[in-house]
Write a structure and sequence with these properties.
This protein folds into two domains: about 1-235, Neuraminidase, CATH 2.120.10.30; about 240-290, no CATH class. The strands form four sheets. Strands 9, 10, 11, 12, 13, 14, 15 and 16 form an eight-stranded antiparallel sheet that branches. The chain has a four-stranded antiparallel sheet with strand order 1-2-3-4, with no helix packed on it. The relative contact order is 0.08. The protein has four helices and 19 strands. It is mainly beta and about 290 residues long. It starts with a strand and ends with a helix. The radius of gyration is 20 Å and the shape is globular. The protein is about 15% helix and about 40% strand.
Length: about 290
């Protein structure tokens, strides 16, 4: 028996878990690759299970969990397993659930205590470093999950909730250099309208370019749970850096120049990412010229 949990961006790879012995709880993470077949990714500790949850664009990097120290976050880079630890270097991170398209960034969830909210994390597979994502200032709960991540790793979406399933949690979006916001506040910021009686409970995924976002939420009392999709026009989103959001004017130009001079991620709009040069200026001007809907 086996189950698929994730598909690569190019469709060439499927990842999940499979039972190694019928009738036992011993499972291994696996990866099926087009033209190759199913590969046993194994388990780092004998007798403990592992599962693959997600993979990058071409299947080179796989993320999931390894039993042993709870469900510890784990990645398989070119088939080799590595365990994820929190920034202190010794505390196991919780399971990983999302991988950026290039395989550099992984996100997962954290469990807090009765009095301290949990914190999701962002892990870099190249530098083997982890950073915690702060929970919401208002509405933070014991659990916080990073469920989706953009191609450059600068935006992570998910939810925070208490005990039990995440059905009635609070959706969030985290942006590098900005921090964690309630998802409804983010929609207000970028000028996306929605029914104000709808409570965004969880954002389950975001497209690699950040243009499409999906999740679920609840209407009314008793609550009716339903899915949602949000379209964020890419060009408008990149250039719309200053209030009033939803319009492009001189204030956005001023905000871009300020961010560019400060080396802020808000101005890092073109490859090579991590550097600020004329390509970022060209990208901003193209986005600004395209206007907002």
């Amino acid at each position: 028996m086996s189950g698929g949990w994730g598909v690569s961006g190019d469709g060439s790879s499927v990842v999940g878990l499979g039972w190694t012995t019928e009738g036992t709880a011993d499972t291994h993470a696996f990866q099926w690759m087009d033209g190759v077949g199913k590969i046993d990714l194994g388990s780092a500790t004998v007798g403990n299970s592992a599962r693959a949850n997600a993979t990058d664009l071409d299947g080179d990097v796989v993320a999931g969990w390894q039993d042993g120290a709870g469900r510890q976050g784990s990645v398989w880079v070119d088939g080799v397993q590595e365990l994820i630890f929190l920034p202190d270097g010794t505390t196991p991170a919780q399971e990983a659930s999302a991988v950026s398209s290039d395989g550099e960034w992984v996100s997962g969830f954290g469990i807090g205590s009765f009095v301290v909210p949990g914190m999701a994390y962002r892990y870099n597979t190249v530098t083997d470093t982890t950073e915690l994502l702060p929970n919401l200032e208002i509405g933070a709960e014991r659990n916080m999950a990073g469920a989706g991540i953009t191609s450059d790793g600068t935006t992570i979406v998910g939810g925070t909730w208490g005990f039990g399933p995440a059905t009635f949690g609070r959706a969030f979006i985290w942006r590098d250099g900005i921090g964690t916001d309630d998802f409804s506040d983010y929609l207000d910021e970028i000028g996306v309208t929605y029914d104000e009686s709808f409570v965004f409970a969880f954002v389950s995924d975001i497209s690699p370019n950040g243009e499409w976002i999906a999740g679920w939420g609840n209407f009314g009392s008793p609550a009716t749970t339903t899915s949602f999709f949000v379209h964020v026009p890419q060009n408008c989103n990149e250039a719309d850096l200053a209030e009033p959001f939803g319009t492009l004017d001189f204030s956005d130009v001023t905000a871009f120049l300020s961010a560019f001079n400060a080396g802020s991620p808000a101005a890092d709009l073109a490859e090579p990412f991590g550097t600020f040069d004329f390509s970022d200026v060209v990208a901003f001007l193209a986005a600004f010229g395209a206007g907002c809907p």
